[in-house]
Each structure stands twice: as structure tokens, then as C-alpha cells.
Amino acid sequence: MITNVPFDEQFEAAKTEDLRILVVGAGIAGVAVAQLLRRQGRHPVLIERSRDSETMTDDDHAGYMLALMPMVDPVFDDLGVREQYQENSVAIDRYAFHAHTGETLREDRLGSLLARYGQYRGIARGELLAVLSTETCPVAFGSSLVSLAALDPAADAGPRPARVEVSTGVHSEDHYLHGAEFDLVIIADGLNSHSRRLVPGGSAESSVDTAWGGWVAWAPADADTDQVDELWGEGFFLGAYPVKDRIGIFLGAPDSREPLGARRFVTEVRSQLTTVSPRIDAALTAVAEAEDPYFWALRDFRSRQWVTGNTVLLGDAAAGFLPTAGIGAGMSMESARMLAASLEATSPERLPEALTRFEAAQRPRAEQAQSTSRELARFMFYLPRAVAGLRDLIFKLVSVKTALAPIIDLLKHPARPDEVRSTDI
């Protein structure tokens, strides 16, 4: 359970530990790594800029519906919450691709494709955070990192803590600035990280701006709880993704179409369709009737480096994904598990070695998955509208197995925590 525990109270429990850890950002990566570290007996301090747990788990914003590959299963097992995950998600077995005019072109069995590795499951972001925090999860809400004086990795001065300033009460007039020292600062506050700019080397190596975005909404659940539907039209995209008791809807459009508004854009989309299934109809209705639906800008981010002295970027702060391969949240969780494993029984003296092992093992995996997302985005977003029929033909001939081959390769060769654990354990 996520509980609001002030920064100074959390720090009191952490300050006498051999490895004092600050985690910035209580999203998927931040909560996962904090809970895994707590399972090891550590007391990381977890801060979050959001006002409270309700706003932190708000399902009306970007990333609210997630499809998780089986690479996440070991995280749930390590936390002892596999049963809760199963109860709060749905198994996805079928993938239906629709032509630009609406008719179904092909259907693939994702469940059969991934069965040897585990289940592909749909879950709402808020539900996922609740599952990860089944055991007590202290979070200092309304708190942000405002300064960071980290270890200079070029200086041969031995282990030295990072000096930080954390502002609390950021949503009220009662601000307070806390100064503290930590042996490790984990930056996990998302794709648009405010903290990353404080880290030398935290700038982007590359980023992709698709010049597309999309409105997100919820539709009522239907009988096809195991099926994902995607429809690529001429200048639009529509996706329907089941989670427990509802369906997450994403209606994509070029950024230039956002001022038109969701309701008018839905009317425009309907005029292009000659075949409208009940689910497609419900999806469009949900977007049109949503009150001020959120428009999610489709951008990604790749950091030049993850580790700098005694700071490390994690999750979207290190490699923020486009949603085109459905792998971003899963990779954040896998990275959190690998980082926690590298820190198991690590002392400040051994911290540089531990972080180096982590980045060497996990960064290539994350970038392989991110590159797949980028390749799919090029095909999905950058084809001229006039060749929508050609894209239909290609999708009809190319299976999901072929499109996701690099992701399946990651599942075939899973991350191995033993590779990053200290040999002293």
C-alpha cells in the first residue's frame, strides 16, 4: 500500500545504513526498485512530486493502459505479488489488425507466440502501481529534487556521498528545503525528468519526435477481453487495449490535428470507415464523449549515459519509449530488478563497480527494445497518407512474430541478475 511518509521521517530510517539511497520519482521504475530494495532489508527514501497517491496513480493521463511482456514476471515473483498481478490484469491472446477502411485484415495469436515465455497481460497503470506496492510503500509526496552535488568520477578521492537538497510541500505555500547526503541517487522521474538535468551526462544522446500524439479514453469492457485491436487509417490511428473491467482507447493523430479537438476528429475518422465493428464503434464513442481527454504526445528519449559517479538513471529517465512495441513499462521493471540485484550487499566502496555492471548488462537490452519501437514508428507514422493501402498489404503479409522478432529475442535470452550481483554475495 502506498503511504505518505515525509522525507525527514524516511531519511531517519535510512541515514544509518551502509548504503543510503534516494529514489526520485514514484512511477513504475521508481516504485519497483524501491520495493525490491526494501525486500533486501534496505530503506531507500522515495520522493514523488505528485500531490498524493490519487494523483500519482491517475489513470486519465499518459501511459494509463499497459501491455506487459513476460519479462516482468520475475519482478512480481521477487516481490511476492504474482497472484495480485493476475487478479488485476487480463491475459491478451489475440491481436486484430484492421485495414484503413475498418475491415479486419488479419488476426494473430499473441498468447501462443509468447506462451513459452509466459503471458502477455493488459493492466491499467494505476493498478500496476497498486500491485507493485502491495506491501507498504512509503512515499514522500509533494517533494522534488532541486540540487545535486554528486561524486566526480574523475576524482580519485574514494567513496563520497552526494549532497542533495529536496524541496517538500511543493504544492503548498509551506515549502521546506531539506539538505541530506546519500551514497546513491536513483533518478526515475520519467521521460520528461526534471532531475536528469542536475546530473552531468544526463542529457539526451538521441530522441525521436513522431510529430504525432493521441487522445486517450476508457471504453466499457466487452466479451473480447483477450483481444487487442489496432486500425491504421489515412492520417489517424485507433487502438483498443483491454485491461481489467474496461478497455483503454488511444486515438492517434498528427500534432497539427490536435486543435481540431477529439470530438470533431472522431467525426472525421468515422467518415473514412466503411466497416465499423462494435468495438471500433465503442472506442470512437468513448473518445468523442470523454470530457477534455488527455492528448499524449508521442516522443522518446535516450540518455547519453546512465551512470555518473553515484547517480544512475532508471526507466524512462534513461530510455523513454514510444508505445509502438508495447515494451517500455516492461523494460523499466526489468531494469529496476537488475539495478536492485546489482546493489544487493553492495557497500559505498563497491558502488562504482556495481553500477558499471548494471549499465553494461542492461543498457544494450533497453536500447535494443527502444530501437525496435523506433523502427515500427517509422513505418507507422511516416508513410504518406496516399499509401495507406500499401501499409495494409504489408501488415496483411507480415506477422506480428516477424515485426516483434527483436523483442522475442530478448525474451529468449532473459536478463540475468546473477551477472550483476557482487561476487562477494
UniProtKB/TrEMBL annotation:
The entry's keywords: Monooxygenase, Oxidoreductase
Xref: PANTHER family: MONOOXYGENASE, PUTATIVE (AFU_ORTHOLOGUE AFUA_6G14510)-RELATED
Protein name from the UniProt record: FAD-dependent monooxygenase
Recorded superkingdom: Bacteria
Limits of the FAD-binding domain: 20-370
A molecular function (GO) term: monooxygenase activity
Gene3D superfamilies (UniProt xref): FAD/NAD(P)-binding domain
Organism in which the protein naturally occurs: Brevibacterium picturae
